[in-house]
Specification:
Blueprint: E1 5-6, E2 9-10, H1 20-25, E3 34-38, E4 41-44, E5 49-51, H2 55-58, H3 67-79, H4 91-103, E6 110-114, H5 117-133, E7 145-149, H6 158-162, H7 167-173, E8 180-183, H8 204-216, E9 221-226, H9 231-234, H10 241-253, E10 256-260, E11 284-287, E12 299-303, H11 305-309, H12 328-343, H13 346-363, E13 371-377, E14 380-385, H14 397-409, E15 415-417, E16 420-423, H15 431-445, H16 447-451, H17 453-459
Parallel strand pairs: 7-8, 7-9, 9-10, 10-11
Antiparallel strand pairs: 1-2, 3-4, 4-5, 6-12, 11-12, 13-14, 14-16, 15-16
Helix pairs in contact: 3-12, 4-12, 8-10, 13-15, 14-15, 14-17
Bound molecules: pyridoxal-5'-phosphate.
């Protein structure tokens, strides 16, 4: 097959999470090649405009054209574009770590800087194992198991990916990391535990953690990790009580409690961080994505003073790190992005506009029986699609993909998965953009859209992004 080219340049790139044969054959159509951004919009190479309804990969939270960020990056590029944090340091890394400790719950005292969410999670996992390995109490040194929620997404790295409990990962590149186990997620709309619903269910999903710890033997379990709101799984959040129950279970059995706020952090749900209101507090916090407004790769893993203290001395230092940990330009951009997020009160804006958007999308349920549930908080909203509201039967993956294509064809980029469609727009959108989004969703979800599924399937030929 002749090699595809872009402006005469042969296409050698291998895209992440992308079905390359399909992508390559449709390269250049729709929003497959984006060339510029402006505020909440992105443009393709034919200057067609799309609403950035998924903030790229849920990270680009403050919009395009932020001069403050560009200035911070160029200043740092001139001053000190790179210096390592391996046994050395530079001012921006010190400042960023202090800023993160200051704006989080007050429970964290030490910050490991990284480049992406997967690294933030990988860091937390190794931290948890090493923490127990060097416990003063010999009976805790055998703790290595990590419990997570089935269907969660914590990243691509082996440890992070193992947490999902995904059969696909196991089939493609198993065996995955040993010692990881999953409990079913707190998915009230399609509860995997019971039919009677919260609160009658007694929060069976939270009880499952304790049961699993007891079944495995508490002295073998190192940590429990969860996303406060499961993004990829379907913007699924448990009842508030769940956080307290699993936190207390972690305390009771000596597990580290890890909150993965890579997606929810920095205002996405309408709160700066979801876990800052939890009691008990998590012991470790993973951050990424919007930490830099999405402008540069940056992530962080925060730990408590008690954890840090166990890593003192020649034998005990944290044997982990990466070349780009604490990269000065990324750190400078992170500081500037955090200033913008706080100064412009973006969590508050996400809460306000998110409430409006969610309520307008919920209104569509009256005219669109295929909407099973609209859920989420802030600007992290899922539209769960079902063939039949009573049985909650799902559409096929191809059918959901057709809805996605339809929305893209109307100028809205959004995310999709087996259960439906989701919106993660930039945190500074206003009601006007929310109205545009609702207008497009209304057309996309019209019952006609189902009748025309075959026609939509043909639209696959116009778009080729397998994961937006
Ligand atoms: C909750 C959560 N954790 C970790 C990650 C991995 O982040 P990254 O893709 O930056 O490695 C993601 C990515 O979507 C995520 O949603």
């Amino acid at each position: 097959m002749a090699m595809k080219t872009y402006k005469g340049i042969p296409y050698h790139l291998w895209n992440p999470y992308t079905q390359m044969d399909r992508f390559i054959s449709f390269l250049g159509m729709g929003p497959t090649i984006l060339t510029r951004g402006e505020g909440h919009y992105v443009y393709n190479d034919r200057d067609q405009r799309y609403i950035n309804g998924n903030s790229c990969t849920w990270n680009f939270s403050i919009g395009y054209g932020r001069e403050e960020i560009i200035e911070a990056a160029s200043r740092q590029m001139r001053e000190l574009p790179f210096s390592s944090c391996w046994g050395l340091v530079h001012p921006r890394a010190i400042e960023l770590a202090a800023r993160l400790v200051q704006i989080t719950s007050g429970n964290f005292a030490h910050v490991y800087l990284g480049s992406n969410g997967s690294e933030a999670v990988e860091t937390a996992l190794k931290l948890a194992r090493q923490y127990h390995r060097q416990s003063p109490d010999a009976k805790d040194r055998g703790r290595f198991k990590v419990i997570s929620l089935r269907g969660s997404y914590h990243g691509y790295a082996y440890g992070a990916a193992t947490l999902s409990g995904s059969e696909d990962y196991e089939a493609k590149f198993g065996p995955m990391v040993p010692g990881f186990l999953q409990i079913e997620p707190p998915y009230c709309y399609r509860c995997p535990y019971r039919k009677d619903g919260y609160p009658d269910c007694g929060l069976a999903c939270a009880q499952a953690l304790e049961k699993t710890i007891l079944a495995e033997g508490p002295e073998s379990v190192a940590a429990f990790i969860m996303e406060p709101v499961m993004g990829e799984f379907g913007v699924v959040a448990p009842p508030e009580e769940y956080y307290r129950r699993v936190g207390e279970t972690c305390r009771q059995y000596g597990l580290l409690f890890i909150a993965d706020e890579v997606t929810t952090g920095f205002g996405r749900t309408g709160k700066l961080f979801v876990s800052q209101y939890w009691d008990p507090q998590p012991d470790v916090l993973c951050l990424g994505k919007a930490i830099s407004g999405g402008y540069l790769p940056l992530a962080a893993t925060l730990a408590t003073e008690a954890i840090y203290q166990r890593f003192q001395g020649k034998q005990n230092y944290f044997m982990h790190g990466s070349t780009n940990s604490g990269h000065p330009v990324c750190a400078a951009v992170g500081l500037a992005a955090i200033d913008i997020i706080l100064r412009e009160k973006l969590p508050e804006n996400a809460a306000r506009v998110g409430t409006y958007l969610k309520s307008r999308l919920s209104d569509l349920m009256t005219s669109h029986p295929i909407i099973g549930e609209v859920r989420g908080s802030g600007l992290m909203i899922a539209i769960d699609l079902t063939r039949d509201r009573k049985t909650k039967e799902r559409f096929t993956g191809d059918e959901i993909y057709n809805f996605l294509l339809d929305a893209i064809g109307r100028g809205l980029l959004l995310s999709y998965s087996d259960w439906g469609l989701s919106l993660f727009p930039p945190l500074n959108i206003d009601e006007g953009i929310a109205d545009q989004i609702v207008g497009i969703m209304d057309k996309t979800l019209r019952t006609g859209a189902i009748a025309e599924l075959d026609r939509k399937a043909r639209l696959l030929k116009e778009f080729a992004i397998s994961k937006l």
